[in-house]
Amino acid sequence: RGRMWAYTVGFTVLPHVGGFLGWFINRKEIPVWYEKLKKPSWCPSRRVFPVAWTVLYTGMGYASYLVWNDLGGCSSKALIPLGLYGAQLALNWAWPPFFFGAKNMKMALIDILCLDGLAIGTMCSWYRINKVATLLMVPYLGWLAMATCLTIRIWKDNPEEKPGKSE
Q1: How many CB atoms lie within 10 A of CB 63?
Q2: What does the angle CA 123 – CA 131 – CA 147 come to, to the nearest 5 degrees?
Q3: 7-41 per-position pLDDT tens digit
Q4: Could you say which of 3.40.50.920, 3.40.190.10, 1.10.10.60, 1.20.1260.100 is the CATH number of the domain covering 1-37+45-157?
Q5: Residue 139 near residue 59, CB atoms below 8 Å
């Protein structure tokens, strides 16, 4: 019982690890490449993203702890609910390298569409286990909806250059 705080902190911090690495690896591309892209008027300011992701990662990390705890840790019952969570988290972490690193908006779009499905699947699998955990994922799903629309608009409004064509 005394070590439960360590599990709480570990689960809560875990999503931040990949988020921080994604930012750290791609941080130089953001002011150089991203700022030059055509973006819709409703695109959030660059300053909003780190604040939003800090709140969202904290909520989803704590939610995963609640589900893990309610299922008695790493049991066979936890395989699907936490497996879906892990899969969506991996796709979440993969988006920045696709978008900023490879500048491959099509792969980033495929990634985020799959991520949306896995996030919804995660929430559906969590609903009977812990409703608070499911509710903690709602802001994340809302942000993903906006991020998906933004990815679609940026992909459509910024056609990728074909190899061999120069201006």
Answers
A1: 26
A2: 35
A3: 888 889 889 998 888 777 777 777 778 889 999 99
A4: 1.20.1260.100
A5: yes
Q: Give the chain's length.
A: 167
Q: Which residue has the tokens 């490879």?
A: 102
Q: Hey, where are the domains in the chain?
A: 1-37+45-157
Q: Would you state the structure tokens that stand for residue 152, as one six-digit string?
A: 């679609």
**Which residues fall within 8 angstroms of residue 138, CB to CB, at 6 or more apart?**
123
Cβ(133)–Cβ(151) below 8 Å:
no
DSSP alpha helix (H) spans, 97-137: 105-127, 131-136
How is residue 130 written in tokens?
């812990």
pLDDT, tens only, 146-158: 999 999 999 999 9
Collect all residues with Cβ–Cβ distance below 8 Å to 113 and sequence separation of at least 6: 148
What's the pTM? Answer: 0.88
